[in-house]
Each structure stands twice: as structure tokens, then as C-alpha cells.
Amino acid sequence: MNQQITGAEALMRSLEHQGVTTLFGYPGGSIMPTFDALYHHKDTLNHILVRHEQGATHAAQGFARVSGEVGVCLVTSGPGATNTLTGIADAMIDSTPIVVISGQTPTSMLGTDAFQEVDLVSVTQPITKWSYQIRSAKDVALAVARAFFLAKNGRPGPVVLDFTKNAQTEMVDYEPMTVDFVRSYDTNPDPKEGALEAAAALINQAERPLVLVGQGVELGDAQTELKSLVEKADLPCGCTLLGLSALPTEHPLNMGMLGMHGNLAPNVKTNECDVLIAVGMRFDDRVTGNTATYAKQAKVIHLDIDPSEFNKNIAVDVPVLGNCKRTLKALTELVNEAKHTTWIESFAEYDKVEQARVIEPEIHPTSGPLNMGEVVRAVSEATNNEAILVTDVGQNQMMAARYFNYSKNRSIVTSGGLGTMGFGMPAAIGATFGRPDRTVCVFMGDGGFQMNIQELGTIMEQQAPVKMILMNNNYLGNVRQWQAMFFGRRYSFTPMMNPDYMQIASAYNIPARRVAEREELQDAIREMLATDGPFILEACVIEEGNVMPMTPPGGTVDKMMLEC
Amino acid sequence: MKTLYTLIVHSENIAGLLNQVTAVFTRRQINIESLNVSASSIKGIHKYTITAWCTEDEIKKVVKQIERKVDVLQANYFTDAEIYQHEIALYKLATPGFQANPVASKIIRRHAARVVEVNPTFCIVEKNGMSEEITSLYEELQQFGIVLQFVRSGRVAISTSCFERLNEYLAFREEKYNKEKKDEKYD
Ligand SMILES: Cc1ncc(C[n+]2csc(CCOP(=O)(O)OP(=O)(O)O)c2C)c(N)n1
Ligand SMILES: [Mg+2]
Predict the structure, then answer these.
(1) Domain A369-540 has CATH 3.40.50.970
(2) Is the entire prediction scored with pTM above 0.90?
(3) What does the pLDDT read at residue B14?
(4) Which ligand does the CA of A474 lie closest to?
């Protein structure tokens, strides 16, 4: 007979069995037996001690988004567990595979309002794919196997394992387990019969097709399949915020970013196309604006792995269920080679307008303070457009997304659906562990930088090579912009007093530089990239800059404002 | 147009699923009229029968969002024409008032209800039937002012179609899994 081991040790072996190498966590009372077991697995399981459990979840998200692996968090019960909620909700809405393992009160004390008891399973049910309480050591192997299977298969998402203390200490015979089938959940669903043919027929008849590229393409690892389809049938594309790196920026069929602060041409053309082909995207309101005036003229084809997305926000003519790696491939075989030259050329007219009125003044100003866009573009070019872009939330996020260029897959990590300020810094830490071979640049605002500023401690300790670009405008800029545009310039609690970030950097022993002059920008970026390990570049940018163009909330996608 | 839909959900028998199912209604601001949860005819599988007034567009979205829960096997919605449904109701009547009104016992007989308990203070009447019948018996008895309490179960319902969706679903899942396994082997 096997030697019996503790439930905590069973967890370690189960994680190793799943191929886990990196964990982000923070210890506490009810997870101590597990941290004790971890002590003996330091060689195989690299545990990154964060400074706040929210940081652990965003780090796990960053890790998952760039590597395609499951991100793992290990936290204690009660406050440790509740601190993970924002990251779990963020992972749910952005379909990011993470597994959060939290300690829990012993089973015998559940329901007694015991010290640090929170009913985590109930609390997390609406924001997880699966949330489960491990009440005995013999459940560990199966629970972990099921958790990883569910987190990464089908439409990915977060899973919570609530690990009672007695289950951590009980002895158990351990056998590694693998789950590859859950009968109630089809992770690889098939399209309805005839759906692919119907979609191909629409595409073959289309004169003005437009593809909307979403994160599903990256999640399904279908970047090549997407390219084959759009090249064969000559289909111009717009990318969602999370889908920006699924097709290289420079690809001739990539017409730019969709959405509220996206590019003019793909937004306007959404309301001119005759066939709209949405791939792995969910018609979020930040993309559609007013749905009553959205793409009414078009036949809509929707490729998605989650059937609940069909007809959720936008009526779909041809739903094509399935992993887009499969469906794109099948569709490519069915469509004809085609050319849509005139239609594609018609995008250029709008590009020219946006270029002249928005982009040029933003990235090549000749006077005045630094602009966010110019900082972003300069960083992007200095990395040869090969870096991973991580962003926080706000104007910095929109500017970074707009002006960064993408040449490789899985190159944008940003909080899309939840819009979580404080996401950037910890997500960037995670990204450096997920892809140690790539440069990771994170753009943050002065507000968001401070929202998980404690993670500078993690960066210091790990020497995580995070290139942090703090775009300091002394405002909660995004909100200030809305106040300027829609609330009569009443700046209600958006001006913000800032600390001296150079002193903060030096307290953490992180090399840093502040730049306010245009002439110094290039050199500062060069220094940042030439420095081994982390770096903070504080760019003092224009205080009242605005992100343009913009579809105001509830507005129509083809009526973007170019200035305000 | 709002219709009374009956939703039948089959799920794995996992604690906490009820919350997840009802939360879908709450999020979409739809009130649940009745809810019944019990073991189904298949071991380890639970059945939820839920009724709610809503539009067809709403019920379609609700069904898909419920089905999206990983432990839910299947969710389907039906109009009253597509199911056979029953409810059970209990009526507690004041015995003196009941005896003073001979018509009351005629009404009970006419409704095919039965008296299951009698004592000097109260008697209990049990009826099963369609929702409207149960309501109308209540209203008729209430004319005499003798109803002390009235409770009704949620609806139980069974589809009247000739094929069994759940069995088919389970067979299909099994078959697909085996096929994928085989494909993997030959890859
Ligand atoms: C946790 C959280 N709180 C509040 C908000 C609302 N919000 C969105 S953008 C923004 C301002 C961000 O300011 P800053 O980080 O300085 O970035 P900027 O817009 O100035 O680039 C705020 C407050 C949010 N998205 N997330
Ligand atoms: Mg700011």
C-alpha cells in the first residue's frame, strides 16, 4: 500500500500533476498546513509572495493571458479570500483561466461564524465557472483535476477551491487523477448542421464583409486559422480591445480597433458592411454603442464557443458554435477566394481623417507637454513592437491600446470587461513569469499605479523585469474627461495630489527616471529597456488631455466624435 | 408579450446549484412564480421545475444562461400547451363554518378534492390539479369565509413530446466522448 500523505501534500502533488510551476499567494491561519507542505516543494513549485491577495489574482491572470496556462493563487480564508474577489470577477468576464485555492475553517466549524469564516463558495458562485469546497482529503485529487479541466477548457474562466483546514491535515492514500470529461459541460461543442455552409454562403455573396476579431481567437489559439480565412476571402478586420494582438497591427487586412475609443474606419464601416463576421467576441456595449443602431443593415455571422453569447446583445443570422480553431478552419475550406478591393480601399478615407485630426497631433506634437499617445508609440517602437503590453485602466489604457503596435500573439493584457483599476502592475508581474523570454511593458495612470502600489514590494523581491510606465496627469483622467464632456467641467474629486514617485521607487530600490521634456523621452525609454530588471519611467503628461475619437455612451458607432 | 413559461432544468446533484439557477432570474429581473426541486428519475440527477412570466426572448436567454452553468445538464422551456402539469394544494377550513354550509362539501366533491383530516376545530382538504382549478376551489370556499390557511406546491411538469431529451443528451455526450478518445488514439 502507498504511504498515506496529508491533504495538503496531496494538493502539492495534484498541482504538480497538472503541470503547475508557478503560484501567486499569501499565507494565513487556515491555509498554513498547505504552506507547510509547499515548503517541501520549493524546487518544483515557484511560489511568488505578493503583497495583497488582489495582486495574486491579477498576477495569475497576467500569467495565464500571456502563457495560455492556468494561473494559480493560494490564499487564506476570510479576508484573504474576499481580497481575491475583484480578480475572480475580472477573470470571469474576460474569460481568463485561473484557479484560486483558499483556506477555510475546519468542516466541524462551518456555519458557526468561526474566525475568518466566509462562505466563499456562495459568494463566488456568480463570478466563477465552478466553485467547490473540499471537505475531506480524499476529495483533493479529483477536485484539483476537475478545477483545472474546467478553468482551461471550453470558454476559459476562474475556478475556486475552498480548502477546509481539516482536509489539509487529514491523511489520505493519494493517486494522481485526470479529468477529461464532464458530462454536463461540452468543452468542444459542434456547430449545428448546415451552419458552416450557411456562413460560407453569406461570406461568398458578401460585397462588403467585415470581421470582428475577439479574444476568442487568442484563447482558441486560432491566430493562424483566422489569418488563412481573412486572406483567402479578402476580409477586412476590426479587433476588440482584448483581440488586438490576434492579428498583427501591420497586417494589411487589420483595420484597427473597435469600440468607444477605437479607430474611426472599422467603427464607421460596421454600419456599412453587408456581412458582419464576429469571431470569439461578445458584442460588449463598449463595442456596440447603441445596439438599436448597430449594424442593422448587415447579416450577422457569429462564431463562438459559448452558445449563450448568440443573440445575447445582437441578433445573429448564422450562429456557428464551436472552438474557433475548428470552425475557422472549416470555414476557410468552404469560402471562395475573393477580392474586395474597392471596399477595402474605402477604409482609407476614414483612416486619413483620423490620422490627420487625432493620431498625428497625439503622437507627433511639436510643442506643449508630453502626450500619452506619443509616449506609448515611442515605447512600442523602441521594443520593435515585440513587447507584451499590459495596461491599467483609464485614459492610459485606451491610449496604450490605441498606440501600441502588436506583432506577436498574446501581446495585450488588459482588464476589458471589468475595467479594474489596479490591474496593471500585478498583471505585469504575472506576465513576466508567464513569458520570461519577452519584454513586458505596463502603462499605468497615477490613480491606478497607487491602487495596487504595494506590489512594488513583490517586484523588488522577485526582481521581476517589469517595465513600468507611469503616465502621470495628476488626475483621475478618464473620469475627468467625462466630467469635461458630460458634466459641465465640474471636476468632482478627480484632481489628485500625488506623492514623489521617484522617492517611492528609490524606497523599493527600483531604478527610475522622470521625464517631462520631449527631447529626453527617447533616451529615457532607451535607459528603461537597457536596464536589467524592473524600471519605473514616470512620464509627466498633459494634464487635461482627452482620448479621442469617442462614441459617447449610448451613441452610434458611425458617429464618433473626433474632438471635444 | 409575456407568457407563463415552464422551465425544466436537469442538473448534477451538487449543493448550491439552486442558488445559481435562481440568480439567473434575479439578474434579469424576472420573478419566479413557482419552483420545485426534486430528484429526477435518473439517479444522481436533480430536476427543477420553474415557472415565470416573461417574454420568449427573455426565457430563451435565461435558458441559455442556466445551461451555461457547468453542472447543469439541460434546460428547456415550455408553454402550457407543451407540457402536462399538476400542482397540489391543501386548504385548512374552520370545521364549524364548514358544517354550517352544506354547499361547501358539494363544492369539494365537484372539484374532486378530498377531506384528509377532520377534528372539531378544523379540517384539511387536499386537491391536485391544474393551477386554475386550485385557485378556483380556493375562491369558491373563500365565499363562505371558512378558509383558515391555503398552501399550494409549485408546479410539477412533464413534457408531452415523444422523445426524452435528457436521455438523448446523456447518450450523445457519452458517444461523443468515446469518439474523441478514439480519434485521439489514431492521431
Ligand atoms: C477599481 C476602480 N475604481 C474606479 C474606477 C473608475 N475609473 C475608471 S478610470 C478612472 C480614472 C483613472 O485614473 P488614472 O489611474 O490616473 O488614469 P488616467 O485615466 O488618468 O490615465 C476611474 C476612477 C475603476 N475603473 N476601477
Ligand atoms: Mg491619471
Answers:
(1) yes
(2) yes
(3) 86
(4) 2
Nearest to A125 among B19, B61, B68 (CB): B19
ipTM, two decimals: 0.89
Q: Whose CA is nearest to atom 8 of ligand 1?
A: A394
Nearest to A162 by CA among A49, A38, A11, A311: A11
Query: How far is the alpha carbon of B64 from chain A, nearest alpha carbon, in Å?
Result: 5
pLDDT for the residue B165: 86
What's the pLDDT score for residue B186?
67
Q: Burial level of A179, CB count in 10 A (0-12/13-18/19+)?
A: middle
- Residues with CB under 6 Å of ligand 1 are A 392-396, 419-422, 445-448, 471, 473, 475-479
User: CATH number for the B3-78 domain, one of 3.20.20.300, 3.30.70.260, 3.40.980.10, 3.40.50.1860?
Assistant: 3.30.70.260
**Phi, psi dihedral angles at B38 (to 5 degrees):** -160, 170
- CATH number of this structure's domain A5-172, picked from the four choices 3.40.50.970, 3.90.180.10, 2.40.128.20, 3.30.70.100: 3.40.50.970
Query: For the CA atoms of chain A, what is the radius of gyration?
Result: 24
A130 and B70: CB-CB below 8 Å? Answer: yes
A399 with A443: CB under 8 angstroms?
A: yes
At residue A124's C-alpha, the angle toward residues A389 and A129, to 5°, is 65
Task: Please report, for chain A, the start and end positions of each structural domain, with discontinuous segments joined by +.
Answer: 5-172, 195-345, 369-540
Neighbours of A405 (CB within 10 A): 20
CATH says B84-152 is which class?
alpha beta
Residues of B in contact with A157 (CB under 8 A): none
Q: How confident is the model at residue B187, as a pLDDT?
A: 58
Question: Which pLDDT value is given to residue B182?
Answer: 84
Report CB contact under 8 Å: A185, B71.
yes
Across the interface, of A122, A125, A308, the residue whose CB is closest to B68 is A308
Is the separation of the CB atoms in A535 and A464 below 8 Å?
no
pLDDT tens digits, one per residue of B92-150: 999 999 999 999 999 999 999 999 999 999 999 999 999 899 999 999 999 999 999 99
From the CA of A453, the nearest ligand is 1
Fold type of domain A195-345 = Rossmann fold (3.40.50)
Q: What is the pLDDT of residue A2?
A: 66
Distance CA A429, CA A290 (A): 37
pLDDT at B163: 74
pLDDT value at residue B162: 77
pLDDT of A122 > 90? The answer is yes
* Site of grid cell 442556466: B66
Q: Where are the domains of chain B?
A: 3-78, 84-152
Contact A438, A410 (CB under 8 A): no
Q: Do domains B3-78 and B84-152 have the same CATH topology?
A: yes
